[in-house]
Design a protein that fits this description.
The chain has 490 residues and is of the alpha+beta class. Helix content is 51%, strand content 9%. A five-stranded mixed beta sheet has the order 1-2-7-4-3. A two-stranded antiparallel sheet has the order 5-6.
Length: 490
């Protein structure tokens, strides 16, 4: 009986504390739906499609509104103007990383994706400089991507035009480019360690987009010790980190400080330079997490975009035919595509932009946070408040992109058929937290996909009109359905 009384009193206290915190915390926050004690607004959100829920709420509360995901308020920015005003015009104030519990459990605030403050600034600056030194945005990295594109073509030829699932083949190509920068190594496409890494990254994107993880991110303290897919994500990241640790140990044994071979060598040299600095961010723990961040972000996002892109090209055969016609005309069959070709291929460039716009890979971006108390559009946002930016609302803006739910390369072409740039093209986000590898990703998408279309005709295994392009997961990321196709040599 005493236990029941204690439980009732405890729950009542929690309820009262929740109500008090929500009321006292609102201050002059933007308007939003009334939260329930403890659970906040979770019942007003479809955890299977959070982005759609945010769009519906914005119709009621405007482009800036407050949501309670559990106990804590998050401010949602919906539409290009609000997103740009925060992430670009007030870039420093909105440059924090917001709460994302499943990743915090894995990274513990280390690395570059989910760190903050001095640590984030130092590791991001180091990573950008080091990646550039190893060719990011230069001709040398283009040569690597072209060579990997040729390897990809050879691997696709081995399918002999038979139906195949392209998931892992397409994942291997961008992963090998990243591996060459981080580990100074590329893998054979049949290497089991390589395929295991691909499987972990692929599974984690799918799991992180599941409804269960959205619930976990809202109530981590309650769910932490329960079984569920959050444990699988943690286990998968542990596998990747253990692999990275093996490579770090190999690098330590053969390190030449006067001749750094790759990203890991540069980090180890920086660690040695700062060994007497007790406040240094260059530690083994930060090295493992930073490499895992770069490794994962540089692999899965590009490979998923390619996989989704091929599915769209399978369905829209008339668009594919026009791209291949432009490739034949501008490049031909006897040399590899190069980045100089892109400016002379407006239709192909428009198709690649439209793939990224249409699939809307990370609909609500990674969460931001304000680094100080901020006055934003006459509202007061306290330091540390999580900021959710709807990239969907920008990429699918119906004024900038008429019929945004239709796959149409015309969204990026003017009346004369020339490529049309758009400020609303933000698949890599914008501001101080925008994707470190945007230049590499855009290069890979152009070179890999044009090389595939130069060498193969894409043959679906079902009638194109029956191809379903609806994502199978639609929360953190949009994951395309599994499918098969035939790569018929051109």
């Amino acid at each position: 009986m005493a236990l029941v009384v204690a439980l009732v009193i405890g729950l009542s206290c929690l309820l009262l504390l929740s109500v008090w915190r929500q009321r006292s915390g609102r201050g002059n926050l933007p308007p939003g739906p009334t939260p329930l004690p403890i659970i906040g607004n979770i019942l007003q959100i479809d955890v299977k499609d959070i982005s759609k829920s945010l769009t519906n709420l914005s119709k009621v509360y405007g482009p800036v509104f407050t949501l309670y995901l559990g106990w804590k308020p998050s401010v949602v920015l919906h539409g290009y103007d609000a997103v740009k005003e925060a992430l670009v015009d007030l870039g420093e104030e909105f440059s924090g990383r917001g709460s994302f519990p499943v990743s915090e459990k894995v990274n513990r605030g280390l690395g570059i994706l989910f760190s903050n403050g001095k640590r984030w600034k130092e590791l991001r600056r180091f990573s950008l400089v080091t990646l550039r030194n190893f060719g990011m945005g230069k001709r040398s990295i283009e040569d690597r991507v072209q060579e990997e594109a040729r390897c990809l073509v050879e691997e696709l030829r081995k399918t002999n035009g038979s139906p195949c699932d392209p998931t892992f083949i397409l994942g291997c190509a961008p992963c090998n480019v990243i591996c060459s920068i981080i580990f100074q190594k590329r893998f054979d496409y049949k290497d089991q360690h390589f395929l295991n890494l691909m499987e972990k990254f692929n599974e984690n994107l799918r799991l992180m987009s599941s409804p269960w993880i959205q619930v976990y991110n809202t109530f981590p303290a309650l769910i932490d010790y329960l079984p569920g897919s959050h444990n699988k994500i943690i286990k998968n990241f542990a596998y990747v980190k253990s692999y990275v640790l093996e490579k770090v140990k190999e690098h330590q044994e053969s390190l030449d400080v006067n001749n750094p071979r790759d990203f890991i060598d540069c980090f180890l040299i920086k660690m040695e330079q700062e060994k007497d600095n007790q406040q240094s961010e260059f530690t083994i723990e930060n090295l493992l997490t930073t490499v895992t961040d770069v490794f994962g972000a540089g692999t899965e996002t590009t490979s998923t975009t390619m996989r989704y892109g091929l599915l769209l090209l399978l369905k829209h055969t008339e668009i594919t035919a026009k791209v291949q016609e432009e490739i034949d005309h501008m490049i031909g069959r006897h040399r590899s595509p190069c980045m100089q070709d892109r400016s002379r291929m407006p239709y192909t460039d428009a198709v690649l932009h439209e793939i990224q716009r249409y699939i809307d890979l990370v609909p609500t971006n990674l969460p931001h946070a304000v680094t100080c108390d901020v006055k934003f559009r006459n509202y007061f946002i306290p330091k540390g408040t999580t900021i959710i930016t709807s990239l969907t609302s920008v990429l699918h803006d119906n004024k900038e992109f008429p019929n945004p739910d239709v796959f149409d390369p015309g969204h990026f072409l003017d009346d004369s058929g020339n490529f049309r740039k758009s400020d609303y093209f933000l698949p890599f986000s914008t501001g101080k937290r925008m994707c470190v590898g945007e230049g590499l990703a855009r290069m890979e998408l152009f070179l890999f996909l044009t090389t595939i279309l130069q060498n193969f005709k894409l043959k679906p295994v079902v009638d194109p009109k029956d191809i379903d392009t609806t994502p199978i997961a639609n929360a953190f990321g949009r994951v395309p359905p599994l499918y098969q196709l035939c790569f018929i040599p051109a």
